[in-house]
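Reopening this one. Same input as before:
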Amino acid sequence: MSLPKELRYSEEHEWVKVEGEKVRVGITDFAQHELGDIVFVELPEVGADVSADEPFGSVESVKTVSELYAPVSGKVVEINEDLSDNPEFVNESPYEKAWMIVIEPSDVSEVDNLMSAEQYEEMIKED
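Same output, byte for byte:
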C-alpha cells in the first residue's frame, strides 16, 4: 500500500495535498482497498461550501456506499470531472488520477490538524 510522505491525512481516510493557497483532496489507497471496486463517485458542485469533518460527496463500490468527508473548511474551486466516466481511477490511481476536489480553505491552518503519513500509518495498523 502506498502512502506518500508529502501528503496529510484525515481520520476519515482522505488525503490532502497543499498547493499554494488551495488543497487537493482524495481518498487513500487504504480506503479504496477496503471499499473494493468503485463504481460511482458523487462530488459537489464547483462553488459549494464544505465544512471540515462534514460529508461533501460519496463513493459507491460493489460492496457499499461511503460518505466522503471534507478534511478542511472552505469553497470547492475544482472537481475531478474524469471520475464521473472513470470511477475505477479511484482503485487504479488514488493519489494521481483520482483526486476528487480542490478546496480554497477558509483557514489553511486546519491542514496542521491533519495527520502525517507516519501518524496515519499507525492509525490504520490499529484497525
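So the earlier flakiness isn't reproducible anymore. For the record, The beta strands are 8-9, 14-19, 22-27, 38-42, 49-50, 55-61, 65-69, 74-79, 101-105.
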